[in-house]
Every structure is written in C-alpha cells, then in structure tokens.
Amino acid sequence: MSMKKSLKLGLAALVVVVAALVFMPVQTEAQDVDHVFFFIGDGLGNAQATLTEYYLQDKYDDPGYELNMHRLDEMAVTTTYGADKVVPGSAQTATALASGHNTNFGYVGVTTDHEPVTTIMDRARENDWGTGLVTTTRVTHATPAAFASHVPDRGMENEIIEHYLEKEVDVIAGGGYRHLYPADHPASTRNDDRNFFEEFAEAGYNVFEAPQVDEFRDFEPEGREKILAGFHPTHMSYEIDRDPAEEPSLAEMTEVSLNTLEEYGQFMMMIEGGRIDHAAHNNDPGGMIYDTIAFDEAIGVALDFYEENPDNTLIIVAGDHETGGLGLNSCEGMEYGYYLDFEPIIAQDASIEEGIEFENAEQWYQDIADKFGLDELSSSEQAWMEHGVAIEEEYGHEADIARPGRIGGVYDGGQDYDVPYDEEAVDQELAAHWPQAPWISPAQSTLAHIVSRRAKIGWNTSSHTGSAIQLTAHGAGASHYEGRLDNTDVARITAAILDFELDPEVGAAELD
Predict the structure, then answer these.
(1) Are residues 108 and 173 in the same domain?
(2) Which residues pair with 475 in a beta bridge?
(3) 382 and 287: one domain?
(4) Superkingdom of the source (predicted)?
C-alpha cells in the first residue's frame, strides 16, 4: 500500500531576519494557578511538529489524528532571537523563557553583563512550591540549567549541578551522570572528588543511579520528598534506540516527577524534549520524529492531570528555536511533486548518530539494509554512499563530507573553514555539500540524506535557524498566551499569572 500523503500546500522552512520588533504591552491578571507544566521541545519548530503529526496520521491510517500539543486551547507565535544573534543558541533562548531576559549566546541564567537573573522557578521555590527539572539531555544541559543556575558559559556543567543542590531543586531527572560522579569514576568528567549522588542523598534526596530504572518507576513518595535520577553518562538515548530496561521514557520520568511534586500542593515542572534538537542537527527524520512523539506523550501525562485539576493547572508547550531548516517537501525541484513519503521513515529502526556506526564497508552496507531498509540503492545513492564511505575510510569518523581534510567542527574546536570543499565531488554532482553535524560521520551524514531524500524531506542546515515558532497553552491563565510574542514575554506572562515578581528591569506583563 502506498504510504504517500498528498499536500495541498507546499511547506518549507523559513528563516526570518528581524532587525527590530515592537511589541504591544501584554495585559494579564493573576490567576489561581497551583500547578505549572512548562514543556520545552528543543529545536521544535512548526515543521517538526507537523511532520510528526503527518507521520502518525499515515502510520495509523487516521487523517484526524492530532498530537497532544495541538489539542491545547491556545496558540501563539514567539520570536527566538537573542541579544547578540538572530539565529540563537539554546542557552540564551531558555534564559529568555525562564527569566524574561534577552541574553548572549552560551549564557545561562545571566544577563549580557554576567549578572544572575531571577527565574520563574526561583520565585516558585521562594513561595514554597515544589520544583522539578526533567529532560532527555544531561540534567545540566543548557535548557534545564537556565531555570535554576547562573553561569556565563553553558559548558560549565560541573558548576551547574552545584547550583541545583544549593537551590534545592526538588526533582531532577534525566541523563548526564558524568557531571555527578567524582573524577575517579570511569564515566566522570569532573576534576575533583565530589560525588553529587552522595551529596544529594545527604541532603535528603532519593537518589536513583543507573541502572535503577525499575526502582525509579516504582517510587511512591510519602509526603514532600525529593529525587535525583541519572540514567546515562551523557544524554539519554534517542527514543528510537532506547532500551526500556535501561532508561525510562520522558513520559515515565514526567509521571514519577509529577507524583512526587503533587505532594507539595503547588508545583512547577520544566520538562524538556532535548533530543529533538540533536536529531534535527543530524538531519535524521526518524530520530527526530520518535523524540517528538516521546515529548508529546509526556504532554499527555500533564493533560491527564489537567482533566482532574482543570481549575488550577496551566500547561505551556514551547520550542526554544528551530533546528535543521526542515522543509516538508524536498528542495530537489518540481519533479518530485507535492507529497511526502513516510515509507523510508517507517522502515528506519535506529538513529543516525547512535544506532549505527561505521566499522568497515561490508558491515556498513549490511547494517543500512537491516536497520534502514536500504538493501537496494539507486545509482545516485550508491555514488553518494561510496563517496561518504571512502572519506570515512581515509579520514576517519570526524571528517566532513564536503571538506574531507577538515577534522571536527565548531563544537570541538575544529573551526578551520579555509579547508576547501571537495571539488571533485561537487564537479561530479554527488551533492556532497549537504550539511553535516560535526559529531556524526561522513557515512552517517550520507545515510541521513538518503533517507530524507527518499521521504521527500529537505534540510537547509545542520544548525539552528532564526524562525519564529509556535507556543501552545492550556488551562488556567492559558488565554493570555496569544498573538505574536517575544520569547521574553512568555516569562513575563507566566510571572503575572502566578503573581510572581521578576527582576525590576524585566517586570511582569501589565495587569488589567
């Protein structure tokens, strides 16, 4: 049966450069809200959510299927630019969403002058609310860190975990235990002898270390309890690769955290679908879709809670920025027509980055057949793949598909952009100039683009874009998130709804 979905409108990713924007004051009034779920899909733009919904409609043969995030009552559009960049990073966008401050690239919870900011979670904690940070990334990664830490460099993750302990964030769950163990632990990236699992336990936390997954799932709080849970040395696995015996899902972490924080009466949780961004960096359609589904299932946990507590529960679902410049129809030209083909994605059984790894050519071709259904390649695909494999064999995993002599990328210091493109590949029109994230290999990058091209999906970058993105909201106070908003307005509106005061220079949204 054909798995192609006709589209009435051609969709493409749009990067909007905004020189100046003027926003009207937002009028709100305080609400009786006791429970706040703040969901952030890292890298989640409109195209990512739409593609995921279309994929599920096709998979289930249900054209009316809606994601939970699209079932929420209110919708707005938010900008994403930072103080110093039109195309932002996650640290500065999360800081804007958490505090109302527009700051610089890489800054976490600080102003452009490195002054600590006040976040909505800071105010929640000061008002004796329960607070929680749940993520599929490292718990010390940029997005959760912006709600409860203050550092001028997002890479200061060893310091970020110290801030969580000092601020007594009540529930912390995700990956990244390499920043929690002392230097003598084989997975540690610390340079001291501090063991934060032990320090949090001494502070009264229930501590769950890998592989205590079942113990975490079965946890039943008795009164106001605290949790620190770390299930992976770095980011948790992509959802498409996740082993349930070793790692809980984002929905499961959300549910355990909710059960714990509910004992506080009032609570605020930030829940991040962080690996949506990573898969989009990799131009990995299946990886991105599966992590978006996992994120949406976590939203379903909050909606179930809302159904029982509709009068005092607020659900916010935001992206921080768009990643990949995703277009829902390949940019190859008119010959493909106006449709998407989900069969190549349905055949995908592993992530591009972590689910398959190049060892040798024979193994590679067998794995792409077994895990991606690519047992037969077209002549063009075969040429592209041979090119990627040849580069990997000669230069190694860290080589760039279009600049084979350039090892590494901006994330690990390899910023030598003087190395030219592979002119032979360009001359032969092997399309070896497609974007490649610096942490995947030439063979992996080639695989990502063969799958994407077969699905008629286009990517214009392996980085972030500056597109405005959607925000949805539901429940008490949700009607105040409307129209076109600056991302800093989200924090101001939330603070006003909760009757919290942010920093004087930020203020709250004006009250009626």
Answers:
(1) yes
(2) 314
(3) no
(4) Bacteria
